[in-house]
Amino acid sequence: MKEVNALTKEYQMYIDGELVDSSNQETIEVTNPATESVISTVPKATLEDAQKAIESSEKAQKEWRKKSSSERAKYLFAICHEIRSNVDELATVISEEMGKTFDLAKVEVSVTADYFEYIAGWARKYEGEIVPSDRENENILIYKQPIGVVAGILPWNFPFFLIARKAAPALLTGNTIVLKPSSISPNNALEFAKILDEVGLPKGVINIVTGAGSVVGEELSKNPKISMISLTGSTGAGMKVMEKASQNITNVSLELGGKAPSIVMDDANIDLAVKSVVDSRVINTGQVCNCTERVYVHEGIADEFITKITKAMSEVTFGNPLENKSVDMGPLSSEDGLKNVEDMVGRAVEGGAKVLTGGKRGDDTKGYYYEPTVLVNVDNSMEIMREEIFGPVLPISSFSTLDEAIELANDCQYGLTSAIFTQDINHIMRASNELEFGETYVNRESFEAIQGFHAGWKKSGIGGADGKHGLEEFLQTHAVYIQY
C-alpha cells in the first residue's frame, strides 16, 4: 500500500481555457518513484471530457489559423519567457514525479523554453513554392497550410520537453492541439497549463487532458475531428494508435522505441568512448529511447574497454534526486519499469550472460532503484540485445571487423539512433552510409539537437521532429492553379 502524503496536490485538467475536474470526479494517484509515496492526484478524464477538449480545439482552430504566423509566434515567445522565469519550480515538479536528477530536470525545462523560442523564430521562414506551369498564362502555387486539430500523446520520460516538441510547431503553423500527458508524470503538464493562463493563450488552442490511454488516448486516435496524431512512446503504443487512426486515415507522426548500438573501433579514443557510452546509458536512469542500449567493441581493445567501462559504471551514484542533488541518476519511474529491468537481466543471466557490476535492485527499502549494470557473454540472439531495456543496463559484445559490427548493429527491428567511436574517416563514412538508423553520432554521446531531425527507421517510428523537417510535419500542401 502506497504512503499518502498529507500535502498531496490536487491538480485539474485544462479544457477550453479553464481548469476543471473530470466529469465523474474520479482521479489518478501520482507516485514519487524515489519514495513510493503519493504526491498528487490528477483527474481521470472520461470519454465526454476528451470529446469536449477535441471540440474546443476544433472551434479554436478556425480563428487561430487566421492569425499571422508572427502573431502566433508572440504567444510562443511569451510561453518561453514564463518557463524561464520558473525553472527551479518546474524542475522540482519533474524530479519529484518521475525521479529525474534535479540538474537534468533543469536542463529539460531550459531546453523546453529554448524550443518554444526556436520554433517561434520560424514564423517568417517557412514557405511555399511557385512552380512553372505547362500552360501559358498560368501560375502554380504550392501553399503550406495547417492540418487542423493535433493530438499530442506524451511519454513520461521527458514529459515537459515533449510538450514543446509537439505544441510549439503545431501552434506556430496554425494548428491547435489536445495534449494527453502520461499518468506516470502528468503534474508538469498541469503546471504548464498555469503558464498558458498567464500568457493569455486563446481558449481551446491548447487543451490538456489527463487519464487512461484506453479512454483518452483511444478517443484522440479515432476521433474524426483529429487531423494528426503525434505520439512519443513504445512501439506497441504506436501500433495501437495506427490501428485506430486508420479508421479515418488520420496523419500519424510516431517516435517509438529504440535499441541503439554503439560501435567502438580499435582506433577509438577509449576514454572518450567510455565516458560517452556511460553518459548516454545512465542519463535519466537509462530511460531514453535514443541512448546506448548495446555496445559492440573491437576484440583488439575489448579487455581494456570493458575493464574501464565496468569501473565507470560501478562508480555511478544513485539516490533520491531531491534529497541529494549530486547523484548521477535517480530511480526508475515506476515499479513496473523496475520489474521489467530486473526480469530482463535475470533472463539474460539464465541464458549465459555474466554480470560484471550491478545486476540487482538498489539496497534502499524505498524507491524503484536498479544498480548500474554491465553484462558480457551476450550475443545478438539474446533478448537483452534485441529488446529495449529502458534501464541502466549495458550489454557488451565484441567483433573483429567493421563489416561484422555494422551487420550486428543493423540486425534489429529498431532504427532510431546509433553511434561509432573511431579516428578513421573511412570508418565514419561507411557507418554513416550503412547503419540503418535515423541518427548516427560520431565520437560523442547520443543526444539530439533541436535544430536537427529526430526520426526513426523501421519499427522506431514514422515521421520525425525538430528543425525545419520536424516543423513541416505539422503542415499540409495545397496546390492552386491560377489562370490569368
Could you provide a short overview of the structure?
37% of the residues lie in helices and 24% in strands. The chain is an alpha/beta fold and 484 residues long. The strands form 7 sheets. It has a 7-stranded mixed sheet, sandwiched between helices. A 6-stranded mixed sheet has the order 10-9-8-11-12-23, with helices on both faces.
What attributes characterize this protein structure?
24% strand, 484 residues, seven-stranded mixed β-sheet, alpha/beta, Aldehyde Dehydrogenase, Chain A, domain 2, Aldehyde Dehydrogenase, Chain A, domain 1, 2 domains, 25 strands
Report on the architecture of this protein:
Pathway: Carbohydrate degradation. One of its GO terms (biological process) is carbohydrate catabolic process. InterPro entries: Ald_DH/histidinol_DH, Ald_DH_C, Ald_DH_CS_CYS, Ald_DH_CS_GLU, Ald_DH_N, Aldehyde_DH_dom, Aldehyde_DH_Superfamily. It comes from Alteribacillus bidgolensis. This protein is of the alpha/beta class. It folds into two domains: 271 residues, Aldehyde Dehydrogenase, Chain A, domain 1 (3-Layer(aba) Sandwich), CATH 3.40.605; 189 residues, Aldehyde Dehydrogenase, Chain A, domain 2. It contains 14 helices and 25 strands. The strands form seven sheets. Strands 15-16-17-14-13-19-20 form a seven-stranded mixed β-sheet, with helices on both faces. A six-stranded mixed β-sheet has the order 10-9-8-11-12-23, with helices on both faces. Strand 8, helix 5 and strand 9 form a beta-alpha-beta unit. Helix 2 runs antiparallel to helix 4 and helix 7 packs across helix 8. It is globular, with a radius of gyration of 23 Å. The termini are far apart.
